[in-house]
Write a structure and sequence with these properties.
- The chain has 476 residues and is an alpha/beta fold.
- A seven-stranded mixed sheet has the order 4-12-11-10-9-5-8, sandwiched between helices. Strands 13-14-17-16 form a four-stranded antiparallel sheet.
- The protein is globular, with a radius of gyration of 29 Å.
- The protein binds pyridoxal-5'-phosphate.
- The site of pyridoxal-5'-phosphate has 17 residues, from α8 and β10.
Amino acid sequence: MADQLSGAGLAAASDIPSLDRLLNAEALRPALATHGRTQVVAALRRDLEALRKRALDGGVPRHELDAAAVAARTSAALDEAARPRLRAVYNLTGTVLHTNLGRALLPDEAVASVLRALTSPANLEFDLDTGGRGDRDDLIDDLLCELTGAEAATVVNNNAAAVLLMLNALADRREVVVSRGELVEIGGAFRIPDIMKRAGAKLVEVGTTNRTHAADYENAIGPRTAMLMKVHCSNYAVTGFTKSVGVADVAALAHARGLPATVDLGSGTLVDLTQFGLPKEDTVRETIAAGADLVTFSGDKLLGGPQAGLLVGRADLIRKIKKNPLKRALRVGKLTLAALEPVLQLYRAPEFLAQRLTTLRLLTRPMRDIQPQAERLRGVLAHAAGSSYAVEAVPMFSQIGSGALPIDQLPSYGLAVRYAGSGRPGRHLDRLETLLRRLPVPVIGRIADDALWLDLRCLEDRDEAAFAAQLAEPLA
Ligand SMILES: *Cc1c(COP(=O)(O)O)cnc(C)c1O
């Protein structure tokens, strides 16, 4: 059959094989086995239609009508369409908690727990002691209380949801006092003033962008005030002639007027990062101890867990929040809880944290590991990039990302690629960046100052061989 279809010269529309004939051809068997008849028929129809058009327009080389050629095109199209959209990549951007690359990576314990929850029924809302109905928050609230010193805790889908819920539950149609220096916008359209509006609360801005005093808060308190709120300055720092009022003072002012003080910590860490050689960031426990009545923070930033929004604080406020209908709308699924619990458990043994919690392991990865790795991979990348590029192993700075400590930088090491030819480097760097991004496991770096920078902090030693293997051949 194939012989009949092939032959020299151009084929006419009448030479195009029929759908039935192709479906029975040996060459189509693998595609049928992989993708099923429905998809193969649809793909064949598209292919034959394109051939027909071209045949009418002037002809198609005969060999393109071979069953084998049709099968190859069909399989390629179907394989491409079936390729996962959500794919693993190498994060060499230098930003450890990269929001666009999925933020925190889960530790092994959490991965195993998620797998169990995915494949087995679990006591998500079932009290194993009484046999009665349970509350999914019960799975983690005692851990969160232990780790933060709070009286009560609850969890929702992300921290933006936690803030929305908190404001709606505690400040609907009332006023919330916030410093002008803290009206943050975080990437992805999270703005405190917008969330406030959606929650039904009225924002009362106090102070100025750079300076807010205790008296500013005090003067803003009126009969309709629901709370004083502080927001972590994620993604920026106000420096120079500045003044802000700390949590303890804001809490004291609020409490003197019988109001709660709330803090959106954003990243929110559970441990003192300075013990790991990282910059100081107020912990959730310190914030609670300073007098905050309610603290909200993310699960997948410094905490190193799954996407989630955690609320911890006074039991009466948490109770009110849990009764709000938005809580049900924003609740977390079992996969989130399955991932969160083992992550919180890791914090109970802080001596192992820097090894076992992936985020912290990456943030504290020592230069003595990163620098030799950069030197090992320099030649690999130089060979893959070709002689138009110069590759150097150089020191650079990583950042934590996701708004934590935005101005602090972690000394790191990596590869800097520059265009070695003459003329403007921009287009050539873009080309290389694209080639790396199109690898089976895309390599994501960043272009700045006429170089492509690949920070190796997040390429752990166990992934190095696979990374190098992808670069064994020169990039096309
Ligand atoms: C990141 C952040 C948020 C949003 O948290 P998500 O978990 O991304 O929803 C809210 N507030 C602050 C201060 C943040 O840094």
